[in-house]
Amino acid sequence: MISKQILSCSSFASRRCIVKAPLTQVGVRFRTFNAAEQPRIRINSIVPNFKAPTTLGDIDFHEFISGSWTVLFSHPADFTPVCTTELGAFAALKPEFDARNVKLIGLSAEGVEKHKAWVKDIEDVSLEGKEFSYPIIGDESREVAFLFDMVDEEGFNNINGGLVQTIRSVFIIDPSKKVRLIMTYPASTGRNSAEVLRVIDALQLTDSKGVVTPIDWTSGKDVIIPPTVSDEDAKAKFGEFRKIKPYLRFTKV
User: Fold this and answer.
1) 16 and 125 part of one domain
2) Annotated catalytic sites, by residue?
């Protein structure tokens, strides 16, 4: 069992983290969080790796991704109203994510046993008794929250001691372990699960068809041919297209 452990970055270039020592007392921080040591996560950077306990067992995050798309999202605390609706909505939509080869994994800065008790409420509120079936990371030490910068300014200032709650961060990660999208909401505002699915559809379409998507695009609507593709090549690849401006051409896929 990995159980409760401390993680640290081995290098900024690799964005990998290693377990340094086991936690021996819940709620005690065993390292000083230094802003200079925090990895800079950007679009298309390799997501940091970590090992942590979850409601479905211990994980190595890179192994958990293992050739799938992954959505990692954080929550301020267990047994909170907005978080309960969010986790339930994602759980209800899990078949949609499964169909897109997407794994879900949540995080809250409390312990796994408390998460497991909370899951019963989520099942009762949102799943009509159906089983909640994706893992929630236990991050009592706030190590993963620090690694992914999942806190607001007040939380970051308190992260070496004091009350720290994670904000509503969302990371969409592709099978090559690259971060493809980052969304951050304040603790007071619930997320839009349909938007997460919409973005995944757009990213996967871009990867498979070499197109980009316009404002408010949803599956089935026209897409945009990138300006790097000539008209001749666009005709050969996509067939008919609408040319609004030399740089703005719509087509169907």
Assistant:
1) yes
2) 83
